[in-house]
Amino acid sequence: MSLAERVARAVDAAPIVDLHTHLFAPQFGALNLWGIDELLTYHYLVAETLRAEPKVSPEAFFARDKAAQADLVWDALFVRRSPLSEATSGVATVLHAFGLDPAAKDLREARAFFAARRVEQHVEDVLRLAGVTALAMTNDPTDPAERAVWEAGVAPDPRFHAALRVDRLVSSQDLARELDRWIARMRPRYLAISVEEVSAPPRAVLDVCRAHDLPFAMMIGVTRAVNPRLGVAGDGMRAVSLAPLERLAAENPDVRFLITTLARENTHALCVVARKFANVLPFGCWWFMNNPSLIEETTSMRLEMLGPTFVPQHSDARVLDQLIYKWRHARRSIASALSRRYAAMSVAPTDAQIERDARALLGGIAGEWLGA
Ligand code: FIX
Ligand code: ZN
User: Fold this and answer.
1) Does 217 share its domain with 347?
2) Are residues 161 and 269 in the same domain?
3) Per residue in 42-99, pLDDT tens?
4) Residues in the chain where the model's pLDDT stays below 70
5) Cα of 287 from ligand 1 centre, angstroms
6) Is the CB of 165 under 6 A from ligand 1?
7) Number of domains composing the chain
8) Burial of residue 212 (number of CB atoms within 10 Å: 0-12, 13-18, 19+)
9) What pLDDT does residue 62 have?
């Protein structure tokens, strides 16, 4: 077996701990999105469809019901064009994994398949097919629908860990009280915020991270609503200075920071910051970085500068079935980057060493930070 094949085998077998998703445990009911119409109305595909079909205005698209939107996406991106983008090829990967035809002319077969599925079994099948053993949700108590489920006393599947998202919470009147309340209710494994520029979070956020020994995740470089007509698909990206992150890590050596950056131009700078500060953990290739070419480039750069001491990927999945493609595709890119580094070693690694490293990168390190 070649080195590349040995590495691919170890990476494919390594259990995944997914540090960032927008998924919800099945106990959250309708918030748990799955099935072909949810897959096809994923905001990545909405943006790609509106680009491919400029005669369809965003307003006209969103006026359609979800099934009609999905039909349009399927026809525009899968029937009349080849599914060459990462998001379209991902849907094809999911369909193929369930034995469905990715080249179908319409959605009748796929809709019949998903309609016949029982959600509890579907969750088990997706986690098994993706090789995911634990994941973090994104939990925003200011969202009325989600808040209602927490206040009704939901007990999530233990594989679905809470992550307290504070983007909107930080503007609360009594932030410290709100943080204590939702940490007590959700038992989150970390707190998270997305920002364009890096700035220190409110003191109350770092205080609770210390008090509860919770990591603080900063997702850096997003510019919200650059095209508001696209709704959740309308966000953009900025390359920003990471100098404030250095100050934050230096001034808070007892706080662990999970960091991911949206701009390709920030990838190298984050590697340098992580070399300087052991309390900074780069995690994943976020959003516009979540493409095979950039995952391979980023993972190579991180291995060269950090060794196997980071988390190469998170899925950012919004629809349960996406775990299958986001992780199958990421495993290929990570294995490719890892193989190249092993080939550069003066002494070839043993299978046990390859397995050890793959398990650490795909789930071990993330599991330590998630407490999973
Ligand atoms: O801030 C975030 O968690 C982003 O990942 C989302 O806002 C974004 O819409 C997304 O899901 C990208 O994949
Ligand atoms: Zn996200």
Assistant:
1) yes
2) yes
3) 999 999 999 999 999 999 999 999 999 999 999 999 999 999 999 999 999 999 999 9
4) none
5) 7
6) no
7) 2
8) middle
9) 98
**Which pLDDT score, from 0 to 100, does residue 372 have?**
86
- Domain with 93, as residue range(s), is 36-115
Whole-number CA gyration radius for the chain:
21
Are 45 and 21 members of one domain? no
Nearest Cα residue to atom 13 of ligand 1:
287
CA distance 347 to 324: 34
Is 0.85 topped by the overall pTM? Answer: yes
225 CB less than 6 Å from ligand 1? no
Domain shared by 361 and 330, yes or no:
yes
* Distances from the Cα of 313 to the Cα of 28, 207, 358, angstroms: 25, 28, 12
pLDDT for 345-371, tens place per residue?
999 999 999 999 999 999 999 999 998
Does the beta carbon of 365 sit less than 6 angstroms from any atom of ligand 1? no
Q: Rounded to whole angstroms, how far apart are CA atoms 18 and 33?
A: 17
Ligand 1 site, residue 18, Cβ cutoff 6 A: no
What is residue 14's predicted lDDT score, i.e. its pLDDT? 99
Q: Please say which residue of 81, 115, 149 terminates a domain.
A: 115
